[in-house]
């Protein structure tokens, strides 16, 4: 990624319900909930909770190709729906998958029906070339994304991994997949589109005035004074905290609130190679926790984080399943390593911080 774009922060916002009867999502779609849309060359993944072994629920899908890379690139975040596992890092998993355009075209069966145009128009990417947002869908309307996988697609993937044509292995894998899904149901959150804006675009005069009002309300409620927001972003002055401490005694949380007060409805922050926005004091060994890529052993870097406003969107119509957190930070391989011809997603590092004042976002 080009160094001049590393500090560019992108904000993800809820952009309406993804109605499967009207829209067909694909791996090009940024979304909350629903079923994950895997690349045609990637085997379907069903991660489990490291704490209770339950199947994890899909939370967020982000299409995030890197500017200097020829690969399509996705991140999928999963969380355990169990009450006792809520807010624990070991109960979250983030998977990175990549694929070349030529591989996609070869592995994706021809679609009989053209995908709905609305889905293409709402496709957004998170790569360095932010000027292209909203235009990617025009290129993405070429049959790459086939929506949710059908059995025929799984067969294509298995054949790619099994060029000898051993039908016994293929049938066995499909049977195991069907048995697993029939025996254990995976909760699915209602799907929503995610739209993207640059954080710097939020500093309009009217928005800044509204943010200042929210900030004053927060200062009065929490008994803490922080510096004024600057219209030029972080470069226009430093935060200054008075001796009076917030009721929860956490200056880091106060900074967090100040930073997001301009757009409290943000559900995701993206800044590949940038700095995370902690909601509470991180552990002293944080750098060691995410330092090494589990695949290549190289360094990891911060890429994105989920925000408290997302919690209220994670709902099921037929149950009371709920996942709570303050922020979920994702660190990925700095080199975005990928083995040519790979059919398995790479697990990256997730770190969850609880929200010390969750009721503010409900």
UniProtKB/TrEMBL annotation:
PANTHER family (UniProt xref): PROGRAMMED CELL DEATH PROTEIN 2-LIKE
GO biological process terms held by the UniProt record: apoptotic process
Lineage: Eukaryota, Metazoa, Chordata, Craniata, Vertebrata
Chain ranges of the Programmed cell death protein 2 C-terminal domain: 250-353
Basic and acidic residues: compositionally biased ranges: 148-160
Residues in coiled coil: none
Domain of life from the UniProt record: Eukaryota
Chain residue ranges for the region called Disordered: 137-170
A GO term from the CC aspect: cytoplasm
InterPro entries (alphabetical): PDCD2-like_regulator, PDCD2_C
Protein name as annotated: Programmed cell death protein 2-like isoform X1
């Amino acid at each position: 990624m080009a160094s001049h774009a590393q500090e560019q922060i992108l904000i993800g916002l809820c952009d309406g319900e993804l109605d499967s009867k009207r829209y067909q999502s694909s791996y090009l779609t940024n979304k909350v909930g629903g079923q994950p849309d895997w690349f045609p060359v990637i085997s379907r993944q069903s991660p489990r909770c490291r704490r209770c072994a339950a199947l994890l629920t899909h939370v967020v899908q982000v299409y995030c190709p890197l500017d200097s890379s020829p690969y399509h690139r996705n991140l999928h975040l999963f969380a355990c729906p169990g009450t006792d596992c809520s807010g624990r890092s070991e109960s979250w998993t983030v998977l990175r998958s990549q694929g070349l355009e030529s591989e996609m075209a070869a592995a994706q069966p021809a679609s009989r029906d053209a995908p709905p145009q609305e889905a293409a128009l709402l496709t957004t990417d998170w790569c360095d070339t932010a000027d292209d947002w909203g235009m990617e869908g025009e290129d993405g309307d070429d049959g790459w994304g086939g929506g949710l996988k059908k059995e025929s697609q799984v067969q294509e993937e298995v054949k790619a991994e099994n060029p000898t044509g051993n039908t016994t292995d293929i049938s066995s894998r499909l049977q195991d997949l069907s048995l697993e899904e029939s025996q254990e149901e995976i909760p699915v959150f209602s799907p929503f589109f995610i739209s993207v804006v640059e954080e710097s675009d939020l500093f309009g005069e009217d928005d800044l005035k509204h943010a200042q009002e929210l900030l004053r309300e927060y200062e009065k409620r929490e008994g803490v004074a922080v510096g004024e927001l600057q219209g030029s972003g972080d470069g226009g002055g430093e935060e200054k905290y008075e001796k009076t401490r917030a009721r929860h005694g956490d200056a880091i949380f106060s900074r967090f609130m100040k930073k997001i007060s301009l757009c409290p409805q943000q559900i995701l922050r993206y800044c590949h190679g940038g700095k995370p926005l902690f909601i509470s004091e991180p552990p002293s060994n944080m750098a060691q926790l995410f330092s090494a890529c589990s695949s290549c052993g190289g360094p990891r870097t911060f890429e994105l984080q989920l925000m408290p406003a997302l919690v209220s969107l994670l709902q099921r119509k037929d149950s009371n399943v709920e996942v709570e957190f303050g922020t979920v930070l994702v660190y990925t391989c700095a080199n975005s390593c990928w083995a040519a011809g790979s059919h398995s997603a790479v697990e990256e590092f997730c770190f969850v911080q609880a929200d010390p004042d969750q009721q503010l976002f409900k």
